[in-house]
Amino acid sequence: MQAYLKTVTIPLLFLFCNLSISSQKTITVHGIICDAYSKEPIENASIEDASGRFRTQTDINGHFSFDVQTDSTELLNVKHPEYYDITKQIDRKNRSLHFHLKPKVVKLHAMTVTGQSKHTLTETTINTISVNRSFFQKSNASNLSASLAKLPGIASMDIGSGVSKPLIRGMGFNRMAVVDKGIVIQNQQWGADHGLELDQFDIDKIIIHKGAMSLFYGSDAMGGVVEILPAELPGNDQKWGDAILTSKSNNDLIGSSLGFNVKSGKWFYRMRATTLNYGDYRIPTDSISYLTWKMPVDKRRMKNTAGKEINLSGSIRYDKNKFNSAFYISNSYSKNGFFPGAHGVPDLRRLAYDGSYRNIELPHSTVNHFKITNSTEFPVFEDWKVHSDFGFQNNKRAEYALFHTHFPNQPIPKTNKDRELAFDLNTFSGNIRLHSNDNKNQSLILGISAEYQMNKIGGYSFLMPEFERITGGIFGANNYKFNNNLKIISGLRIDWGKISTHGFYDPILENYFTESGYDLVTANFYAQRAKALNRHFTSLSGSVGVNYQPDNVHLFKANLGRSFRFPTPNELASSGVHHGAFRFEQGNENLKPEIGLQLDLGYEYNLNKWHIKSSPFVNYFSNFIFLNPTGQWSLLPHTGQQYEYAQSKALMAGGEIEIYFQALDFVQLSSNVEYTYTQNLVSGYALPFSPPTVWTSNAIFSFHAGKFLSHFSVNAEAQRIFAQNQIANNEIKTPGAWLFNLNGSFNWSIYKRQVISELQLYNIFDTAYLNHLSYYRKLNAPEPGRNIQILLKFPF
Amino acid sequence: MKKILIFNFSVFTLLILFGITSCKKDEIDVEKPVIQIVAPKDHAVLKIGDEHGVRLDMLLTDNEALSSYKINIHGNFEGHNHAPKQRFKAPAENDSVQFEFTKVWTDISGQKSATIHHHDILIPKEQNGKPIKAGPYHFMVYCLDKAGNESYTAVDVILSNTDSEEHNHTH
Q: Are strands B150-160 and B44-47 parallel, antiparallel or unpaired?
């Protein structure tokens, strides 16, 4: 009976309470919270009442709303970790609120300063930069890596206006890693003409770690890591999405992207589709002088550099208590034309207008990257947490060029006759980490990781052997807080790897040499394009770093790391002509893992309206792998001397200096310099692909406007690219240039709907300049000329 | 205390940067040798089976010291990646073979400047018992200096069975 009473009375009591509340009049208070300087809305700011009771959180557009009683005059505290708190009183009359929060650190707009996020693998003591979605909208460069190149210390190697690969402080290719939601992306990063194969409109937040990250990511992460973080989980159930339309004048690009997100109870779904379609890009010159040729550039457009891209992605996440698990699936397809003058000895007949600026003829490449990964997190023991990432990736890359015989005896392939090269790489990866509770003075991370790769090849030409590669590592890292000012992070890692390359014997080449009258030894040497090898590697890496913040004004960082990279199959085993480079490259089966000893320092000063950051680094490599010219001629047609992979002591040093000054509430001035010095300590030459010194200055004006145009900003940018005269032998020196860009960002409010428009004007003066790292540099082809871009985003 | 820290830090940074820039070796040579070809000229016609050989006249120079040069002649029939419609119409001689020639000369080793004049390149009437195919070819010259710097250039030439070079130039 008593139990019966209880079950009846309790709901009744609740009902009564509810009635008593609703009998009082309530009204909805809503508002928007913005950054006092950039005027951008702030997401995830929390609104609490005076007693500290949580009220609500701002959404992606900085909006919030909650109900209060009509006669309420309570005090509200607005909080966000990156901003100073403010307290405001609810006005009886004005129920629409607008708060401005001043950032704790003056930062480049669209850049978030605190490098830490709850999703990042761990806190480190190396320098980081973090950018969010609006950064990519504002830069809207040709691809993700070209957008990242705007950040201090990052450069990109471009192929025309479509494909780029990133370099962190001069380290690209396999000397850096891109990590997408915990999984290292494995595509064809050993190649000079590879891109990232990621959709920049699908990025929520990226942290770039500049420095030794082998401790956490193993081989390849010596130069640093580009870490793509998953989206923050929204607090409330909601549905939202956006449609993006973009167009660019330089290559007649038309792009669109559609994203949709649903948070419903324990489930969170996301999906996005993006397509880009562009024509041949324009350069500010009528002809290119290359060797003895003067190649005409018809209508100032680089022939056959058109391309297209289709990206699809989706994710599903489940959260319950402290357990969460998410599946991410994505497919990225692109097709890109190559300028025919860069493929083989130029022939003027190939450069004539072919009737269209949007067609993709031969030579061209296609890439498809498919990825499915899972990240799961759950608590174990008392206060530990397990985090696991598992993934499968397939990368299919093919290069097409009209079949032609370098060797008169090669028969025409029966199928796919113009497919010059094909690579089909499958990668399985897994990481499991155990994290101790972060709230204590000391926290620990223990982890194991493993990766298996399998590469198949095809095409009438040969560049890279088929291979299998298996690697595994085990690591432990310790984060010790002495007090609130001083932290020491240290760790140790052991890795093991096995690479098996398949031999490749080219009977056509053997026949060519014997027919040409050479002996069988010579013929065999050239015909053995790749050796069958089995190599085992082990490596020890580790790091120790200090983070010292004596007060809110100064921050010091120092990190000493030992990092490593296992040699790649092409460095070990391949032999033959590297297409496009006209070079005979000989692998070296005796290569040892590349070992780096890396010192990174950082100092940050924050006072009032100033933010100054200096981040010098010195890297010493005991076994730096590079292509060494032998001075011996290759007997193959179409090639010069032989190059052989060799190892040497090498040095890389430099750093970035960044200054941000909030001159007025609506004016930010900033200036930054990035510098990299490289040297092969044995030969004295610079290392290949050393990025030039770049000095960038910006003046950003941000305003709140009327009801129709809610806020807008204008960014004027001047960029000085210095001449690059420190080159490896057989590279070409590149002169410097001045570039001027203008960006405008306008946020409209049309019938209570938000519309974001971005206008970018790149290379205002149509300056013909060369990019030292561009694929078309050796042709003396200037980079794209003036480009007017527009991006419209309709959030819904 | 803070000022001392900042001071020490900046001194340390500067020392590193100066240390790096001062240890640069100054003997490195990144200048490539220069190839100036006088003959054969672009679009020159080279006679198949000419007993005098191909007249080669060129000047090779380098800032330090030359090492060697290589000459390669290969067919340009497919026009390397031509769109099919622009493909060169080669005479239909199914039994003929494309001429291939590769040779290295090291007699310029150590010189700063070398004037090359010889007729060492012979284009025979047939290779491996098959007649040489007439038509467009690339005449490639590669040059290396002692430091391994390499330059190359190409001349578009036409191999012809017709008698005189002048005859071909007239039409």
A: parallel
